[in-house]
Amino acid sequence: MGTVFSFDVRGGDPRAVRAALDEAVDGLHRADAVFSTYREDSQLSRLSRGELTVEECDPEVAEVLALGAEAERMTDGWFSTTYQGRLDPTGIVKGWAVERAARVLALAGASGVSVNGGGDVQLLGAPGAERPWRVGVADPLRPGGLAAVVSASGTTELAVATSGTAERGAHIVDPRTRRSAVTDLLAVTVVAPHLTWADAWATAAFAMGAREGLAWLESLPEVEALLITAGDEVRCTRGLAGRLG
């Protein structure tokens, strides 16, 4: 998946958690091997070339493609699992893989789990009594600075995902033009229970632009967002203030 992953795991039986951590890491490596668009021998590449059917792939392939199709439907096509005419569910794979890794650890008995994949984070439980997880949102205009701090207070699961041009340049594609998305945005950060969806929604909203993206995000249940425009304007969903701290 071409990024760095980090884990912060609290509580639970050490041996069980250690085994779960190994399982979670193996799962991330496996996801990269199966879904890589850069490896000619990955199941995704072979599926795209017609050398495999979905039924002949690992069950996770059908699962991810179904999630991608649902994201495309819910965004009215602003999210897509194709790129330059090829099958490419990259926009949903990372969030799905990180969320799955976090849940493996929680099921093993960890009382607090934070898994960070390239700046997109799935939080479960809490790091300690009366201590919620907190996630800094990078300011795209001020390297090293924070635009906001998201708190997981009052919930047992929360995800934070950001899409934009600050780290990777113009990599987000407008599925309607099949070219790099040209919008008035620098970054979109989405806060939701599940990273699978938070990541996809951030990508779609960025492609939509500030006005349409914010209105669409406001319509989604259990979703809050922060949008930063190229003019250094910050726009937020109405309920975001309740998630900052």
Describe the structure concisely for a colleague:
The protein has 245 residues and is an alpha+beta fold. The chain is 35% helix and 25% strand.
Can you describe what's shown?
It is a single chain. The protein is an alpha+beta fold and 245 residues long. The longest helix has 22 residues, at 14-35. The chain has helices spanning 14-35, 43-48, 59-74, 90-107, 195-208, 210-218, and strands at residues 5-10, 82-83, 86-87, 112-117, 120-125, 134-138, 146-151, 157-164, 173-174, 179-180, 185-192, 224-229, 234-236. It has a single domain (5-243), classed as ApbE-like domains (T-fold), CATH 3.10.520. The strands form 4 sheets. A 7-stranded antiparallel beta sheet has the order 1-4-5-8-11-12-13. The chain has a two-stranded antiparallel sheet with strand order 2-3. It has a two-stranded antiparallel sheet with strand order 6-7.
